[in-house]
Write a structure and sequence with these properties.
The chain has about 250 residues and is an alpha+beta fold. It has 3 domains: about 45 residues; about 90 residues, Immunoglobulin-like (Sandwich); about 100 residues, Carboxypeptidase-like, regulatory domain (Immunoglobulin-like, Sandwich). The protein is about 20% helix and about 45% strand. The longest helix is centred in the first third of the chain and has 19 residues. The mean pLDDT is about 90.
């Protein structure tokens, strides 16, 4: 083992010990030291992780892309979704998400109609898909401003770790902070219709809250968020802070 590797091993051990020390007494420090620990471990295990991801991608199929659709428009009723003129999804309602659809890489026309109608789509978008890539396509905004937002998914995580990201899709809050309940912000100033990067952690359970960005105004509490080993999570804020449907968090896996 090289001298630099020895240093990384010592640093990783130190940060892991600190993370365990603060696990139940100070969740934000626990997350901080877990991140430092994981940075060391990722440098030591880069080649192994790359091999792991490569094998997973090979299993996924060399020529296909994978797309799931999420209905996040709070005042839109159920919808049918057509892909290149063919009905692919029927009566998708608010807060519902589909399984991943396996599609050959290429360019597609996506049309969204009110359930049972075919006269006038409420949304038409062009979507380009790359092979071996996972996507979440979300219908977002109020009905009069509805659009299709596409987010790149990275579902794979090593078996002893977990990861989470947040997507902000509540149309009446311009920007939010995601924080440990009563503690530090972990995802700051997330704009509407934007996603954070993934945060990689050891398995953990914690309480989270959503605040209006750069304030202490809590608009949603998310208790007992349990992140399990080998799992990837996307938490999405949907609904309205003023009106119905009410603001809530939906967890998509991966």
């Amino acid at each position: 083992m090289h001298h630099s590797d020895n240093i990384l091993v010592m640093e990783a051990a130190k940060y892991k010990m600190l993370a365990e020390y603060y696990k139940y007494t100070n969740p934000q420090l626990h997350i901080l030291y877990e991140q430092k620990h994981l940075m060391c471990m990722q440098q030591l295990a880069a080649s192994e992780l790359q091999g792991y991801y490569y094998r997973q991608m090979q299993r996924a199929g060399e020529q296909n892309a994978f797309v799931r659709v999420f209905h996040a428009s709070p005042d839109a009723s159920g919808v049918d979704i057509y892909v290149n003129g063919n009905k692919t999804i029927s009566n998708l309602v608010f807060e519902e998400t589909t399984d991943y659809l396996k599609l050959p890489a290429g360019r597609y026309t996506i049309e969204v109609y009110p359930t049972g109608e075919t006269t006038q789509p409420v949304l038409t978008e062009q979507l380009s898909l790359t092979r071996n890539t996972y996507y979440t396509a979300a219908a977002t905004g109020s009905l009069v401003k509805i659009k299709l937002n596409v987010f790149l998914d990275k579902p794979y995580v090593s078996p002893n770790q977990t990861k989470i990201r947040f997507i902000h899709l509540s149309p009446d809050i311009p920007s939010v902070d995601i924080a440990i309940q009563g503690g530090n912000v972990i995802f700051p100033s997330v704009p509407f219709e934007r996603s954070t990067d993934y945060l990689t952690l050891s398995p953990i359970t914690f309480n989270l809250e959503v605040r209006v960005a750069k304030t202490n105004n809590v608009v949603l509490t998310i208790p007992q968020v349990q992140l399990k080993a080998g799992k990837t999570y996307t938490a999405v804020t949907v609904g309205l802070t003023n009106g119905t449907p009410q603001l809530e968090a939906i967890f998509l896996m991966p």
